[in-house]
């Protein structure tokens, strides 16, 4: 059996569980009762004193390297920050390992590094080390950036606390990043010329809200690969619930929606890089939406967590369609290469 | 200007300094007065309470993926552990990001992961998370593994504490890993059939010694890319000293030496993956060698740190040759691809 690019989130999840996680003995899956590899969340949590060290790791490749709204550098730093923020952690440092192909232009590398450092400066986050390698020509397509994010949390958000009745909130219009990348790859940027990638750190908009509402936020993620469809399915499966969302409530730029619909791509599966999805206590959902809006977000409540009506619906995500129908939302990786 | 694979350590160092480090503002180069990107050591140090969190990051690619004595999996885990150990840190957890090319064989991935997990089990180190991606065919040659090592140190070893008179110790015969990889690439494995890669974690042999002798060990590194020539040059430059080594005192398997000499490759520049080089207080150098030998190492004192006899010799490494001559040891990356 060989490995295939662009497999669905479910297949990749199963592969990682079977090939890697299941081989790691129980005692070596986490440190000091924290959160480790068995959780498959964005990061790991290590209790240190009365706080929690949160460490995330992610590899970034994207084609094209530069796109409307940013570059692979913007993506790497935003993504790393956001992986920490959605776990409730304040970033304290980032490390990066950059691997480029022989023949990579130095001035292109400089532009990418500048994009990274501009964001680090803006949010005052130290870059404390890393690695840099040049691979022989033909061994790598251009560039891969792998980052490690290091953060501290008082109350890390673990995505297994979801309860029946929770409201699902999306912080901003989704799928703009994915749409821009798809359009770039297909030579169709003219079709969405007012749209830019949403890639940005969620520190200003989301972190203060997470710190304020703490335990009332039961789950938080940034819907990158696989879009919100992938995250919602993961939440439904891991918490044995049904999640119902209303497609007409989901914030999305009309131009992005029209572009993706014309291609037959469901926007629920398309990546965002500066948006978060939350599951929150219904008592606080309006307050949280208002707080997010006061910070410049276009947040919306898009659905809720319900008791599964049958065994079949346990672990499933249901979408109410624009004409009132109900469909099951599958979790699938988008079959287009290298989107985030 | 484009980037070239296999450039010397000096060129890569200059490139990293110019393109990345110099762009990061002073205040964002470290956390809480720890050690950060300006040090260019194997890892970063963050003071946390009365201890120090040490975090390392490294990307591993090697051709062939399997070699006598191990695989890229052995290399990734040994290298990560050793980067922590030579900073005086006890590993508490590892994270990994594996990227493979589409079409990569699943059973090959499983073998590599097994090599990784076998070492983690042996040394009881948790694997607490990471990332896994499949890249489209043609975008990557086989596999890259990037790791993050997380450790705790009481007294991190900073390589700027080297003093005149320090003795240089090598813990075991050098260059076996590099020789095996070079032989594999050239189809010459028959010429060194008794040699295996030295890739192994340095926890049992070196960590107790570092913890026992603490501040008397002034510098420690594992001589991977560029071999001991590269590390010694870095130490000489960063500490404004001359380092003199005696080539006849350097432990190396005769078969490895003969093989490299036949190819015209200086063993000082060839990588080891389970060896450390130390600069220690001369008062303790014999004790440290004996302690290392009692733990199964073939440690030797190979040289010492001296006062530069002229401005020209400041920051230089001098080797006493087998016939008593003196040569300057240059730092150069080996021009053979993907050795570690």
TrEMBL record, chains A, B:
One of its GO terms (biological process) is protein maturation. InterPro entries: HypE, PurM-like_C_dom, PurM-like_C_sf, PurM-like_N, PurM-like_N_sf. Gene3D superfamilies: PurM-like C-terminal domain, PurM-like, N-terminal domain. Residues 41-152 form the PurM-like N-terminal domain. Residues 164-310 form the PurM-like C-terminal domain. Belongs to the HypE family. This is Hydrogenase expression/formation protein HypE.
């Amino acid at each position: 059996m060989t490995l295939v690019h662009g497999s669905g989130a479910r297949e990749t999840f199963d592969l990682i569980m079977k090939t890697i996680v299941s081989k790691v003995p129980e005692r070596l899956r986490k440190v000091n009762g924290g959160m480790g590899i068995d959780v498959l969340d964005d990061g790991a949590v290590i209790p240190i004193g009365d706080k929690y060290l949160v460490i995330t790791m992610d590899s970034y490749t994207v084609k094209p390297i530069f796109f409307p709204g940013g570059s692979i550098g913007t993506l790497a730093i935003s993504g790393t920050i956001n992986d920490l923020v959605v776990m409730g952690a304040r970033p304290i440092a980032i490390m990066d390992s950059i691997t480029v192909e022989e023949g990579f232009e130095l001035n292109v590398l400089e532009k990418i590094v500048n994009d990274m450092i501009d964001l680090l400066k803006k949010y005052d986050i130290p870059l404390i080390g890393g690695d840099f390698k040049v691979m022989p020509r033909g061994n790598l397509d251009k560039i891969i950036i792998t980052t490690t994010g290091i953060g501290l949390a008082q109350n890390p958000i673990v995505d297994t606390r979801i309860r029946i009745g929770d409201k699902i909130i999306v912080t901003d219009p989704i799928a703009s990043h994915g749409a821009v990348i798809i359009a770039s790859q297909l030579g169709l940027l003219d079709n969405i010329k007012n749209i830019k990638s949403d890639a940005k750190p969620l520190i200003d908009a989301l972190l203060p809200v997470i710190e304020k509402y703490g335990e009332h936020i039961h789950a938080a993620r940034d819907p990158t690969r696989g879009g919100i469809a992938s995250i919602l399915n993961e939440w439904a499966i891991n918490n044995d619930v049904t999640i119902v969302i209303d497609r007409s409530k989901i914030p999305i730029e009309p131009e992005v929606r029209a572009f993706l619909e014309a291609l037959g791509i469901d926007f629920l599966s398309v990546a965002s890089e500066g948006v978060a999805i939350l599951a929150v206590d219904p008592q606080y959902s309006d307050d949280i939406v208002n707080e997010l809006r006061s910070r410049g977000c276009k947040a919306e409540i898009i659905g809720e967590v319900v008791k599964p009506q049958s065994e079949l619906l346990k672990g499933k995500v249901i979408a109410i369609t624009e004409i009132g129908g109900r469909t099951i939302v599958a979790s699938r990786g988008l079959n287009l290469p290298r989107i985030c």
